Amino acid sequence: MNLRRLLAMAYKEALQIWRDPRSLAIALIMPLMQMGLLGYGVSLDIKHVPLCVYDQENSQLSRAIDSRFQAAGWFSITHVLHSQADLRNAMNAGQCIAAVVIPVDFSRHLASTGTASIQAIFDATDVNTTNIAQGYLQGVIAQTNAQIQAQWRAAHGVQPTLIGQVNLQPSTWFNETLDSRNFIIPGVVAVILALVGAQLTSLTVSREWERGTMEQLISTPVTALEVMLGKLLPYFVVGMVDAVVCLGLAVYWFGVPMRGNLVTLFAATALFSMVILGIGYLISVRIRSQLGASQIALLVTMLPTTLLSGYTFPIDQMPAPIQALTLIVYPRYYVTILRGIFLKGSGIADLWQPLLGLLIFAVVIVYLAARAFHKRLD
Amino acid sequence: MNPAQDPAVVAQGLTKRFGHFVAVDHLDLSIARGEVMGFIGPNGAGKSTTIRMFCGLVTPSAGRATVAGFDVGSQSQAVREHIGYMSQKFSLYGDLTVAENLRFFGGIYRVPQQEMAERVAFALSMAGLEGRENALVATLAGGWKQRLALGCAILHRPPVLFLDEPTSGVEPEARRKFWDLIHQLAAGGVTILVSTHYMDEAEYCNRIALIDRGKLMAVGSPGELRTRELGGELVEVACAPLGAARTALLTAPGVVEAAIFGDKLHVVLGQGGLTSETLPDFLQTHGVQTGQIRDVVPSLEDVFVRIVSRAQDARSAA
Predict the structure, then answer these.
(1) Do B57 and A215 touch (CB under 8 A)?
(2) B39 part of a folded domain
(3) Which of B31, B55, B146, B191 could bond B9 through an S-S bridge, CB–CB 3.0 to 4.6 Å?
(4) Chain A contact set for B81 (CB, 8 A)
């Protein structure tokens, strides 16, 4: 290995990135676009669920309940209905995905028996949203119950007693505001690195074949290892700069809490970049057309990163065979590390397993990449 | 390095097969130091494959070759340090400037830093690109590109140069300039193997190797090839109809070859048969009117046509 040749190679590659509008766009604009899209667009929270209210009673109490739904912030009352037919129409037209029906004898029933029912109807075509909306509705009802009980006791001169009553006090850790953005955004960094790194490097060798420059290059004394390291060095720098920008945006723009060690974070990022660049390079060596290389790169980096890394879909919730499969899905290690460092402030002691996983991948992939390229035409 | 009198390039039984197709068939060749060897043959004859084997880019199926004293199979890294190569397809970086391409190859060949500026300047002046250092290579015309490619290939002062059809697609004026450069380099002691399909360029070489269907057909200086390979005296015969005349002559005594050449016939007359004087009468008996007959100094093209057709005859006889 000769440093002079390696640097000549790296400088040439950097010039080519600089002069190629497509590479520049992928390197510089894509991360910002992705960060914006995924940071703003992907949210697992539900806010302002469109809600219809059919208040058959229209009493003081029922109106108080209506306004409570509105005030909770999770729902927007889009329509106030006046008949069962209205309700069906509103549901069919998609004007609301949840409806609440307060029966005509609601207050009277509550006063005479101490209990009363409210009907809740859901458009369950989107099961996920329905479940969450149902949870929110129950929350609102629970608050209402508590208030009614307190009022009732006050009115009847009975002291509120806590005996025999269990109060659940939920306490959420690591993501106190239960904001799914805090969960998503650290993973976005992995997606961006996977996308940018593999897309750029997958073209680096195939471009030389397509333009006919490869034959000249391999007639020189430059070694296969120098070609690989020289080509990957500029992309590694681009990847790390992109990572700094994305992590900075995550913390300072999206306000994701950053509780862990930056050195561990960047060590993991460097390892992940090496895996991604190595895969991009391997593809580039094997696939001699730029188009094919780019598409395969998308398939083997983006798909596992978005679907199987735990970035959007929790690995714990996957069927056992798929969970086993994620062990070879290298982005899962990086996503685990990112979330651990960001949200939990985990250190190396907690993260040694995913770090080791990433390290093993980096070593194996770089080794395979170094052996893949031969300075031969046949 | 081996002693100076050893040939710069040696091939012994050099063979390359791609599946059942034999691209290069037991080629034996020796190129002396400082020699300009022309590599001539039709497309697909095996010229490029042979050059690529010399450069270590293609692994020989059989036989061996040494370049600058190094074995192309086992010492390909050392071979690469001692050669310059221009591939058939233009292969510099179009998105880099002239100077950036030169510095890149200078770095790859580890040209000493203190000599870099001087050698880049030399390559620029050789290519006639002074003042255009910052032009993107993609914007250059063909002749300049070729000379720049040559400049990149000689930055590290290799003792052996392989040029694969360096002048194809280049206008005649630029081709002539390119050959001047080749002779300058050869005068400086560089050994050059240059392939071409332009017959006129063959005349510029010290020696010529003719290759056809992977086989080496003839080697020698242009003068040697003319006298040795033609096997007789070449005359140009104006006559009509050409086809009938050719058919008749091919069976006539003493006629070695008769080939249509433009609107005339080129006829090689061997010993003890037809002569320039008896030829019109012979053709008359076959109903052919003969015009002017004149002696021609055979072009190399005549020689090659002769060699190739003799090989064809041998094949069809076998």
Answers:
(1) yes
(2) yes
(3) B31
(4) 221
Range of the domain at A64: 49-156
Q: Tell whether B23 and B100 lie within a shared domain.
A: yes
Q: In the 8-state DSSP scheme, what is residue A253?
A: I
A217-271: pLDDT as tens digits: 999 999 999 999 999 999 999 999 999 999 998 889 888 888 888 999 999 999 9
Shared-domain flag, residues B63 and B181: yes
For residue A91, is pLDDT > 90? no
Which pLDDT belongs to residue A163?
A: 43
Residue A105's nearest CA partner among A62, A73, A165 is: A62
For A378, the closest of B58, B95, B104 (CB atoms) is B58
B32 residue type, one letter: A
User: Are B80 and A8 in contact (CB < 8 Å)?
Assistant: no
Within this chain, do residues B270 and B130 fall inside the same structural domain, yes or no? Answer: no
How many angstroms away from the CA of A14 is the closest CA of chain B?
11
Contact between A377 and B52 using a beta-carbon 8 Å cutoff: yes
A84 close to A68: Cβ distance less than 8 angstroms: no
Tell me the pTM. 0.77
Nearest Cβ partner for B80 among A15, A221, A376: A221
Residue A315 sits in the same domain as residue A201:
yes
- Show the DSSP H helices in chain B as ranges: 47-54, 76-81, 98-108, 113-127, 142-153, 172-187, 199-202, 222-230, 242-250, 279-285, 300-317
Q: What distance in Å separates residue A214's CA from the closest CA in chain B?
A: 7
Considering the domain boundaries, does residue B243 fall inside one? yes
Which chain B residues contact residue A221 at CB under 8 A? 77, 80-81, 108-110
Helix, strand, coil share (%) of chain A residues, nearest 5: 70, 5, 25
For residue B110, the chain A residues in CB contact (below 8 A) are: 2, 4-5, 221
Amino acid letter for position A98: A
Select the residue of B59, B96, B109 nearest A376 (Cβ to Cβ): B59
Q: Containing domain of residue B306, as a range? A: 226-317
The total number of structural domains that make up chain B: 2
B58·A20 Cβ contact <8 A = no
User: What are B37-94's pLDDT values in tens digits?
Assistant: 999 988 889 999 999 999 999 999 999 999 999 999 999 999 999 999 999 888 899 9
